[in-house]
UniProtKB/TrEMBL annotation:
Record's keyword terms, sorted: Glycoprotein, Hydrolase, Membrane, Metal-binding, Metalloprotease, Protease, Signal, Transmembrane, Transmembrane helix
Signal peptide location: none
Membrane topology field: Single-pass type I membrane protein
A Pfam family reported for this protein in Swiss-Prot or TrEMBL: TraB_PrgY_gumN
PANTHER family: METALLOPROTEASE TIKI, METALLOPROTEASE TIKI HOMOLOG
Protein localization: Membrane
Name this protein carries in UniProt: TraB/GumN family protein
Cofactor: Mn(2+); Co(2+)
Keyword Acyltransferase: no
Keyword check for Transmembrane: yes
């Protein structure tokens, strides 16, 4: 279940910007009264290669705690997530889709997950889409977050979360279930062909450390979940993170790892921190 949280958070990152940022995944935060710098790092939640470069390893060494989007080290996290998997008010996937379309999804999930859609009838449809992410890459699944956690534990430091499972899961109660179901059906009808192509493009952009390019690609996606719900998926969460980030890095130098597309944009974490008076500069 833990990997599922990593997977679905991959989709929760997006959109616009007026001033282009440098191509970098690692950003140094200083100034505004900070005694020591902290670091902001853009992650990708599923990849073929989760290794970290020398600058990132050095930043981890020079900080004293790790903040991810969620506290992935919380032993209660899986049980918490299970509570929020069902749709509200008894809504079911089989009622959102026609019987013919539900069968298409059912056959598709049996083929790719070896499980029937009937087992997940009450789940938020987006969660099923997230479970398919490993099928989109032609390599063993790796997670940058898990690698960050491994190194942090080796340094005997703590892992924390910028938000709670409840905060992240409620996003998918705010996005209409019908839209989520329709996108799942679209994926099933296309047999993941479009999704694989788009994800390969995202991994290439990530490898090039092009956070602006990632936003551009996601903006151009025809997925209505991302295109029509920018505030829920990205902007509101970024804004909510800023007080948590400021508090943490004023207590001790901190390494923050969040989905790379959270970094850029007018309401991206970099711009929001700069608006608060901090110097946020790319580490080359």
């Amino acid at each position: 279940m833990r990997y599922l949280i990593l997977l679905f958070t991959f989709f929760v990152s997006l959109f616009s910007n007026a001033q282009e940022l440098e191509k970098s995944l690692l950003w140094k935060i200083s100034g505004n009264g900070l005694e020591q710098p902290s670091y902001l790092f853009g992650t990708i939640h599923a990849t073929c290669d989760a290794s970290l470069d020398e600058n990132t390893l050095k930043a981890l060494e020079n900080t004293q705690q790790l903040f991810l989007e969620l506290d992935m080290d919380d032993k209660n996290m899986q049980m918490e997530m299970i509570k929020y998997l069902p749709m509200k008010d008894g809504v079911k996937l089989s009622t959102l889709l026609s019987s013919e379309d539900f069968k298409i999804v059912d056959d598709f999930l049996k083929k790719n997950l070896k499980m029937s859609a009937k087992m997940f009838d009450s789940f938020k449809p987006f969660m099923l889409s997230s479970m398919l992410l490993p099928k989109m890459i032609d390599c063993p699944y790796e997670s940058v977050e898990m690698n960050l956690m491994k190194i942090t534990k080796e340094q005997n430091e703590e892992v924390f979360g910028l938000e709670k499972v409840e905060d992240q899961m409620k996003v998918f109660d705010e996005i209409p279930y019908q839209i989520q179901a329709d996108e799942l059906l679209k994926t099933a009808k296309g047999d993941l062909e479009k999704e694989k192509k788009e994800f390969n493009e995202i991994m290439t952009i990530y490898k090039n450390k092009d956070i602006e390019g990632m936003l551009k690609l996601m903006n151009e996606s025809d997925n209505k979940i991302t295109a029509d719900n920018k505030d829920q998926l990205l902007n509101n969460r970024n804004i909510n993170w800023i007080p948590v980030i400021i508090k943490a890095m004023n207590e001790k130098p901190t390494f923050f790892g969040v989905g790379a597309a959270h970094l850029a944009g007018e309401n991206g974490v970099i711009k929001l921190l700069r608006n608060q008076g901090y110097k946020v500069e790319a580490v080359k």
